[in-house]
## 1
Amino acid sequence: MKLKYINMLLLGASLTGLTSCNDFLDKEPESSITPAAYFSAEADLAAYSVNLYGFFTTIAPGSYGISVFGNDNATDNQAAQGYSSRWVPGEWQVGSTTSDSERGAAWNFYQIRDCNYFFQQVLPKYEAQQISGSETNIRHYIGEMYFQRAYAYFNKLQSIGDCPIITEVLADDQETLTEASKRRPRHEVARFILSDLDKAIEFLSTEAPGGKNRISKNVAYLLRSRVALFEATWLKYHKGTAFVPGGQGWPGNTADLNGFNIDTEISYFLEEAMKSAKVVGDQLVGNLVNNTDAPEGMDRNFNSLNPYYTMFCDENMEGYSEVLMWRQYDESKSVTHNIQMQLQNNGGGSGWTRGLVNSFLMRNGLPIYAAGSGYDPEWEKDGITATLQNRDSRIQIFTKKDGDIENYTSSGDINHVDLEWVVKGNNETRMVTGYAIKKGKHYNDYMQTLHHKGTTGSIVFRGTEALLNYMEACYEKSGNIDATADSYWKALRTRAKVDADYTKTIAATDMTKEAEGDFGAYSHGQLVDATLYNIRRERRNEFIGEGARWADLKRWRACDQVNGYQIEGMRYWGSVYEGTWTDNDGRDMVVVDVEGGTGNMSSESVSGVYIHPYQISHVNNSVFDGYKFTPAHYLSPLPQSTFRQTASGDQADLNSSVVYQNPGWPKVAGQGPTSVN
């Protein structure tokens, strides 16, 4: 039993079944074992690869809520109705097994096993020229599999750090499997990922068969820059701690660090990030999707009024230069979703934080607090539209404002934003902070009023990231902004309708002010310099609602200082909204009941004039006194079963396992972490 269990964890219980799909119109795979004879034609390789695409982060078919546009919830950018245990030391606990989806799933290798099986079967046949079809396409699908193994390992790197590097399908031999369970230092894992991406780039076509619904060479370059930047900054900002090889308290084997120099590794990864990012960035810097700054994204015929807006909600994303890969939905094939039911109607149970909103510059390039910015704090009393006037276009077009259009109906009517969702509805519909998400919202009420009619696409990789990756890696490497980074930064600011001169922003930046609402103002408990901060600000503002924030905060080690941080939303008390949201009988819909837990608005006497979503109720609420953080949460814990199944001799002796736990975490299920540096 022990042998079988280890094999399942390291290698996967079975292979993913195959379909004849050749694009990202995913359907549930059948459960079957693929015969070795299967890999004899180009179509076999294409089908096998596309059936692993389900691991990419996209809108899941059939899903409700706001899906990927809520993936920044539980950060300083965005808040859901409920809180995450990552901000409550002690509530996030070690799981029992890998089947514990939230607490143990990081320690499984199913996707990696499927990739290794592919290589075991396909590479010998490819080298022997025994696969029929287009040579170019055969090579492309082999490249896709190298990419997917790299992607799988990168997920492991972000979640657990050090991990085993497995490149073949292992035999059911206890000694072999136990040895293969040993974790390798994270920088080795990152280098392995880059090497797999190098192979992917060698094999992949520039234009993928099936268009942008499949992986391409540029997608591989983009992921390569992401991986390299992640590892470089992780090593830099966690340097000297238990979270990097050789740091104080690192649980790994120092014998694995022969010749290791962390500064050399940091430099290497920064160089690689710049090199890969530039390949994509140079193609896009003069070809960014146009932002017309139109207040609405579509007209009543669903024609785009602003390509930058519709890039995130179009049914066909193929023509957008920045979209390197996207997932398509098709009602005729019963591949649809339901996220427009919330995006076009209410708040989707989420909202931008006031800290995020305040990070957006005025159009003259100055922070809102700076002399000469033109911003007036009194605007917050006058509502959302007034608060966002003269600001960076991105926060204006991607936030629901007073009077904005929700959708156009088939009968010719127009539905407008209803801000009463701030206090009505449930966890899936509330405008949690008042600043409701508009990014990804279409205007066709057919998708909003009927179930399973949503066909807006889902971006998998957006090339704009390459510009931001290069900018950050360049400054981290040299302490300067080179000509390439300069051109990238100015292009992004120009598209956002902000003065392109970033130096005036840097000169006007007050880091103590920025720290009030931005965890990224810090690394390892210390404020960063104004130039680096503004590079991080640009990344934050460009990627709102795209699920990048938590990974950034982890690699920057930007949460050490979080201790009692209150998530804030828009101003309600003393604003134009106070007392205006009434029910059919004319009664005020706003209810304050902090201690009883039946209210829908935070108390002015307890929380002040701004909405504090996590101070509306004191009942069963571990974050009422604010977000708190312990460094152990930068990595996920391995489940107890990992140690039991790899223990030598008595399985009850978890400490005899060849696998070590992540810093601060115990090995026993149901326990939270201890303090760690």
## 2
Amino acid sequence: MSNRLADAISPYLRAHADNPVDWYPWGADAFAEARRRDVPVMVSIGYATCHWCHVMARESFSDPATAEELNARFVAIKVDREEHPDVDAAYLSAASAFTGNLGWPLTVFATPEGRAFFAGTYFPPQPVAGRASFRQVLDAVSDAWTVRRSEVESDAGKVVSALAAAAEAATSVSDLPDDRALDAAVAQLAEAEDPEFGGFGTAPKFPVAPLLDFLLARPSGHELAARTLERMAASPLRDVVDGGFFRYATRRDWSEPHYERMLYDNALLLDAYARAWQQTGAEWAERTADGVAAFLLGVLRRPSGGFASAQDSESTIDGARVEGTYYTLPPADRARLDPPPLDEKVLTGWNGLAIGALARAGRILDRPAWIAAAREAADAVLSRHRREDGTLLRTSLGDRRSEAGATLEDYGGLAAGPLELALAAGDVSAATAARDLVDLCLDAAGDGTCPFETPGGGDPVLEATGLAVRVDPSEGAYPSGLSSMAQAAHTLYLMTGERRYERAAREGMRMVAAQAIQAPSAFGTSLALMSRLAGEAEQLVVVVPDAVEGSAAAPSGLVSAARRHSAPLVAMATESEAAALAAQGFELFEGRTAQGGVATAYPCRAFVCRIPVTNAADL
């Protein structure tokens, strides 16, 4: 039996390399083998820091008898959902036809053409409380494939047809919501607030950072956002020692967390807490933002400057893998243990989230070190993950780069993040790199229904299954490719004045507007952008003399006031940086100087600017 996972980029795949299961990585070879043997495939999807993925690996995939049965009757494919998010999204959608309990590990059985005909999540080694054992599932699926083949293939075809119809309906174009509709969405979310413990719904309870982005963008949502963030900061969801937030809590009162800590959650929450401080000046908001940034820079940051995707929930204590124990210990006891391992792969889109959060939070809270870290991460990811033709790779690990192609999420994230860096620190190279990525996706779309497409198309193996999702608008824990790319395009419009970027942002949001208003909890980033599109474009540019070392640290009351300014777009740059940005076509910076040799603010609405001001009171 070949060991096909031993040299994988993904730590999740390498963790399964020594299983007795004859695993294949995602690719054409697995499906070709299934066709040759005329057997179904089992697609097992998870990620390195997933607790129940570890459990199922220990209970079933490490068991020789179970592996023997799996190898004899199926071709087994192991997928890291973080390396192949498009594969994960497609099979999650297909799995929804068979179970409402979606999550990871995701276990999908499919024809040799990759079309799903049965799916579930975690299956125990023995039947428990009405849940079939994994081996019982294998027997039942194998029997169906052998005895009722035509029925199985018919069901698989119906799933493909249903998903295609649902995808078309989900992206039907409608008008963008006005302020009244957006405030009604805020009211709908307020009705879902847990009045006792904060947050939304009951259990399990997630931080829902994209939703907080929307609430922070609406004046009618500010109090709800601040209340939610304050309660989360004081809850067991936050690790008070290292400062980061865990992925979710299993109880309504935020207790008993699932202890993995994700880059995307903490990046988005850093941004949320910085903006909460901007709106309230509350000490708890600043303190929590400092803690989250300390976790990003002290734990997840890699020597390259990029950020690891996550930290595991489990640590090894007395030779056994235990979930959560490390995090429940006081600092003195914790220091004697090895910390839970990191999933060290650097993901393009998620690093874009971290770059943007560190840059914006660094500007708001006057933390030059955060802005410097954002710049280092941007340089690292752009240099390692960008091909010669300008297209992107999805992930790397150390000096190795994965063959997995980037998704629209990656292009959107790595455009939006460096644009925030350009706004926080006048970084010309970040601004032009971000614009190039947006232009690539606009050009790839051509005259298609969606204004953005992934350059080079999607995964060819996934495309062949018929399950590929052309536009995935969902925003569970972080922005979708569509929303992040539309967000970047809108920022580019505010920086350049080029209407094609505004049109693209509006067209993208029109594809999800109806859905977003009906189900606001699932479209936070999109609604935040729709809120900005509903209002008049407002910009603030602050230019400081070149003599000041670093615009973020400019000793000026005007600069301090600008940090708290409510404009959707605030830019800070030195005179030379502003001139360089203007020379590259970023019209917002045209003619912006530090008048009289002092910091000068240019308040603008829709590119019509008021008289420049040089003191905080006038601003």
